[in-house]
Amino acid sequence: MQESDRNRLRKEIRLLRFAGGDMRQARAAIRALLATTEQDDVDLMLALETGIVVCYARPFTHGEGVGQLGEEWAPEDDHDRAVHDELLVLRDEAGAHTDKKSGRDVVERFELYDDGLTGFEESWQALDREVLRTVVIPICDRQERRFQDAAYELAEQLRRET
What is the pLDDT of residues 45-60, one digit of tens each? Predict the structure, then answer.
């Protein structure tokens, strides 16, 4: 095997290992979010929601350095694929940006708040907790397994060829 082929395998392994880690991080953020209430810490809830969509989407978005997974790594099941696509949209519209589509807004309220601001309050469209628990966590599990299995196979191929 040529050194360039070995380097290509190493790069793919690295990308897949990072992708598996991103699925674990998204799952961890979901679990933390499910254990948090608005009475606990709204800012923590918003940060966790952002973390969920950013971590899930990271392997599928262009970035410097590690690379991006191709379409063949999107979930194969139609329902899982629809959720996957929605998470990527959420990453673009809510997780990475604050625009009108993000679900975040500042709304008028005519009350005095603890921070001294009157008349305005931040709001957002919360992620559906039940969907996160019953749908997104299992998708993260399946995707992580796919990425790790593929990384293992490539590592074995690299080991045999070295």
Answer: 989 999 999 999 999 9
- Spatial neighbors of 112 by CB under 8 A, at least 6 apart, are 118
Give me the number of domains the chain comprises.
Answer: 1
Q: For residue 107, what are the β-bridge partners?
A: 121
Total residues found in the chain within this entry: 162
In a domain, 112, yes or no: no
Rounded-to-integer distance, Cα 88 and Cα 70, Å: 14
Task: Print the domain residue range for 135.
Answer: 3-99+128-161
Rounded-to-integer distance, Cα 100 and Cα 47, Å: 18
Q: What Cα–Cα distance (Å) separates residue 135 from each residue in 14, 37, 101, 104, 129?
A: 27, 20, 23, 23, 10
Encoded tokens for 48 = 């966790």
CA-CA distance, 108 to 106, in Å (whole number)? 7
- φ, ψ of residue 30 to 5 degrees: the values are -65, -50
The pTM for the full model equals 0.82
Q: Could you read off the pLDDT of 20-41 as tens digits, one per residue?
A: 999 999 999 999 999 998 777 8
User: What is the DSSP annotation of 74-99?
Assistant: S-SSHHHHHHHHHHHHHIIIIIS--S
